[in-house]
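pasting for ref
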Amino acid sequence: MKTFIYNQKGEKTDKEIELPKEVFEVPLSYDFLHQVVVSQASNRRQKIAKVKDRSEVRGGGRKPWRQKGTGRARHGSTRSPIWRGGGVTFGPDTLKVFKKIIPKKMKRKALFMVLSQKAKDQLIFVLDELKIERIKTKAVYEMLDKFFLKKGTGLIITSKKDENIFKSARNIAKVKVIEAKDLNALDLMSYKYIIMPKESIKVIKETFIK
Protein backbone atom coordinates (compact mmCIF):
# COMPACT_ATOMS: atom_id res chain seq x y z
CA MET A 1 0.00 0.00 0.00
CA LYS A 2 1.28 3.43 -0.96
CA THR A 3 0.44 6.76 0.61
CA PHE A 4 1.37 10.36 -0.03
CA ILE A 5 4.00 12.20 1.98
CA TYR A 6 3.09 15.61 3.38
CA ASN A 7 5.17 18.51 4.60
CA GLN A 8 4.53 20.31 7.90
CA LYS A 9 2.45 22.93 6.10
CA GLY A 10 -0.19 20.29 5.33
CA GLU A 11 0.70 20.15 1.64
CA LYS A 12 1.10 16.96 -0.38
CA THR A 13 4.56 16.51 -1.82
CA ASP A 14 5.29 14.72 -5.08
CA LYS A 15 6.68 11.78 -3.12
CA GLU A 16 5.00 8.56 -2.00
CA ILE A 17 5.99 5.94 0.53
CA GLU A 18 5.37 2.21 0.44
CA LEU A 19 3.79 1.10 3.71
CA PRO A 20 5.03 -2.32 4.93
CA LYS A 21 2.52 -4.98 3.96
CA GLU A 22 2.98 -6.95 7.18
CA VAL A 23 2.03 -3.89 9.26
CA PHE A 24 -0.51 -1.98 7.17
CA GLU A 25 -2.35 -4.76 5.34
CA VAL A 26 -3.58 -7.01 8.15
CA PRO A 27 -7.26 -8.08 7.94
CA LEU A 28 -9.51 -6.71 10.68
CA SER A 29 -11.22 -9.01 13.18
CA TYR A 30 -13.60 -7.12 15.47
CA ASP A 31 -13.84 -9.87 18.08
CA PHE A 32 -10.06 -10.27 18.28
CA LEU A 33 -9.48 -6.52 18.49
CA HIS A 34 -12.18 -6.10 21.13
CA GLN A 35 -10.56 -8.74 23.32
CA VAL A 36 -7.15 -7.06 23.20
CA VAL A 37 -8.38 -3.48 23.65
CA VAL A 38 -10.60 -4.39 26.63
CA SER A 39 -7.66 -6.22 28.22
CA GLN A 40 -5.33 -3.26 27.73
CA ALA A 41 -7.91 -0.88 29.17
CA SER A 42 -8.34 -3.18 32.17
CA ASN A 43 -4.58 -3.25 32.76
CA ARG A 44 -4.54 0.55 32.94
CA ARG A 45 -7.37 0.66 35.45
CA GLN A 46 -6.39 2.16 38.78
CA LYS A 47 -7.71 0.74 42.03
CA ILE A 48 -9.03 3.96 43.56
CA ALA A 49 -12.46 2.88 44.83
CA LYS A 50 -12.13 2.06 48.52
CA VAL A 51 -14.50 1.90 51.50
CA LYS A 52 -13.85 1.00 55.13
CA ASP A 53 -15.28 -2.11 56.70
CA ARG A 54 -16.19 -2.33 60.38
CA SER A 55 -12.62 -3.16 61.39
CA GLU A 56 -11.27 0.03 59.78
CA VAL A 57 -13.83 2.60 60.96
CA ARG A 58 -12.67 4.75 63.85
CA GLY A 59 -14.42 4.19 67.24
CA GLY A 60 -16.93 1.60 68.32
CA GLY A 61 -14.72 -0.04 70.92
CA ARG A 62 -17.27 0.12 73.73
CA LYS A 63 -20.48 -1.87 73.75
CA PRO A 64 -23.25 0.76 73.32
CA TRP A 65 -25.45 -0.71 76.09
CA ARG A 66 -25.67 -3.83 78.19
CA GLN A 67 -26.72 -7.08 76.58
CA LYS A 68 -29.99 -7.62 78.47
CA GLY A 69 -32.65 -5.72 80.33
CA THR A 70 -32.96 -2.55 78.23
CA GLY A 71 -35.69 -3.78 75.91
CA ARG A 72 -33.57 -2.83 72.93
CA ALA A 73 -31.87 -5.07 70.43
CA ARG A 74 -28.43 -6.30 71.43
CA HIS A 75 -25.43 -4.58 69.85
CA GLY A 76 -21.73 -5.02 70.32
CA SER A 77 -20.43 -1.96 68.46
CA THR A 78 -21.66 1.33 67.05
CA ARG A 79 -19.51 0.65 63.97
CA SER A 80 -21.63 -2.27 62.82
CA PRO A 81 -22.68 -1.95 59.14
CA ILE A 82 -26.31 -1.47 60.20
CA TRP A 83 -25.42 1.64 62.22
CA ARG A 84 -25.02 5.13 60.80
CA GLY A 85 -21.28 5.85 60.63
CA GLY A 86 -20.50 2.16 60.67
CA GLY A 87 -18.46 0.11 58.24
CA VAL A 88 -19.61 -0.84 54.75
CA THR A 89 -20.41 -4.43 53.85
CA PHE A 90 -19.13 -5.84 50.56
CA GLY A 91 -17.91 -2.44 49.35
CA PRO A 92 -15.06 -1.93 46.87
CA ASP A 93 -11.49 -2.28 48.11
CA THR A 94 -7.98 -2.17 46.67
CA LEU A 95 -7.53 -5.94 46.81
CA LYS A 96 -9.35 -6.60 43.55
CA VAL A 97 -7.04 -7.39 40.64
CA PHE A 98 -8.03 -6.07 37.20
CA LYS A 99 -4.88 -7.13 35.39
CA LYS A 100 -5.29 -9.42 32.40
CA ILE A 101 -2.50 -11.24 30.62
CA ILE A 102 -2.28 -10.69 26.86
CA PRO A 103 0.22 -12.61 24.73
CA LYS A 104 2.66 -10.37 22.88
CA LYS A 105 1.62 -11.82 19.54
CA MET A 106 -1.99 -10.85 20.17
CA LYS A 107 -1.03 -7.28 21.13
CA ARG A 108 1.14 -6.99 18.06
CA LYS A 109 -1.52 -8.33 15.72
CA ALA A 110 -4.18 -6.02 17.18
CA LEU A 111 -1.84 -3.06 16.69
CA PHE A 112 -1.34 -3.98 13.04
CA MET A 113 -5.10 -4.38 12.56
CA VAL A 114 -5.79 -0.84 13.74
CA LEU A 115 -2.94 0.63 11.69
CA SER A 116 -4.17 -1.26 8.62
CA GLN A 117 -7.74 -0.03 9.02
CA LYS A 118 -6.66 3.57 9.57
CA ALA A 119 -4.44 3.41 6.50
CA LYS A 120 -7.36 1.96 4.52
CA ASP A 121 -9.64 4.78 5.72
CA GLN A 122 -6.95 7.37 4.87
CA LEU A 123 -6.68 8.58 8.45
CA ILE A 124 -2.86 8.47 8.52
CA PHE A 125 -0.72 11.45 7.50
CA VAL A 126 2.94 10.65 6.85
CA LEU A 127 5.31 13.65 6.98
CA ASP A 128 8.68 14.02 5.35
CA GLU A 129 9.88 15.26 8.74
CA LEU A 130 8.41 16.35 12.07
CA LYS A 131 10.53 18.97 13.77
CA ILE A 132 10.16 22.25 15.64
CA GLU A 133 13.09 24.35 16.76
CA ARG A 134 11.85 25.17 20.26
CA ILE A 135 9.00 24.44 22.65
CA LYS A 136 6.05 26.39 21.27
CA THR A 137 2.46 25.17 21.51
CA LYS A 138 1.27 27.58 18.83
CA ALA A 139 3.66 26.10 16.25
CA VAL A 140 2.37 22.56 16.80
CA TYR A 141 -1.26 23.71 16.98
CA GLU A 142 -1.02 25.54 13.64
CA MET A 143 0.60 22.50 12.03
CA LEU A 144 -2.05 20.08 13.34
CA ASP A 145 -4.83 22.47 12.39
CA LYS A 146 -3.88 21.99 8.75
CA PHE A 147 -4.47 18.23 9.09
CA PHE A 148 -7.22 17.24 11.51
CA LEU A 149 -7.86 19.52 14.52
CA LYS A 150 -11.21 20.75 13.20
CA LYS A 151 -12.30 17.22 12.29
CA GLY A 152 -11.40 15.13 15.32
CA THR A 153 -8.78 13.84 17.71
CA GLY A 154 -5.23 12.96 16.75
CA LEU A 155 -2.23 10.90 17.80
CA ILE A 156 1.29 12.11 17.01
CA ILE A 157 3.75 9.24 16.64
CA THR A 158 7.39 10.29 16.92
CA SER A 159 10.33 8.15 15.90
CA LYS A 160 12.20 9.02 19.12
CA LYS A 161 11.84 11.07 22.28
CA ASP A 162 11.45 14.69 21.23
CA GLU A 163 10.95 17.06 24.17
CA ASN A 164 10.02 19.95 21.90
CA ILE A 165 7.13 18.00 20.36
CA PHE A 166 5.99 16.40 23.62
CA LYS A 167 5.94 19.62 25.63
CA SER A 168 4.47 21.72 22.84
CA ALA A 169 1.53 19.36 22.28
CA ARG A 170 0.66 18.45 25.87
CA ASN A 171 -1.68 21.44 26.31
CA ILE A 172 -3.56 20.85 23.07
CA ALA A 173 -6.94 19.24 23.72
CA LYS A 174 -7.67 15.85 22.13
CA VAL A 175 -4.06 15.36 21.03
CA LYS A 176 -1.51 12.90 22.40
CA VAL A 177 2.14 12.29 21.55
CA ILE A 178 3.63 8.81 21.75
CA GLU A 179 6.88 7.22 20.63
CA ALA A 180 6.63 4.62 17.88
CA LYS A 181 8.22 1.95 20.08
CA ASP A 182 5.45 2.40 22.69
CA LEU A 183 2.57 2.15 20.24
CA ASN A 184 -0.45 0.04 21.20
CA ALA A 185 -3.94 -0.74 19.92
CA LEU A 186 -5.74 1.06 22.76
CA ASP A 187 -4.08 4.43 22.10
CA LEU A 188 -4.68 4.06 18.37
CA MET A 189 -8.35 3.30 18.97
CA SER A 190 -8.68 6.32 21.27
CA TYR A 191 -7.76 8.82 18.54
CA LYS A 192 -9.17 9.22 15.04
CA TYR A 193 -6.23 10.59 13.07
CA ILE A 194 -2.56 9.69 13.07
CA ILE A 195 0.29 11.96 12.08
CA MET A 196 3.89 10.76 12.01
CA PRO A 197 7.18 11.29 10.19
CA LYS A 198 8.29 8.60 7.77
CA GLU A 199 11.05 7.57 10.21
CA SER A 200 8.36 6.34 12.60
CA ILE A 201 7.27 3.69 10.10
CA LYS A 202 10.78 2.29 10.13
CA VAL A 203 10.81 2.22 13.95
CA ILE A 204 7.43 0.45 14.06
CA LYS A 205 8.68 -2.21 11.68
CA GLU A 206 11.94 -2.72 13.57
CA THR A 207 10.20 -2.84 16.95
CA PHE A 208 7.23 -5.10 16.23
CA ILE A 209 8.29 -7.29 13.30
CA LYS A 210 10.36 -10.12 14.72
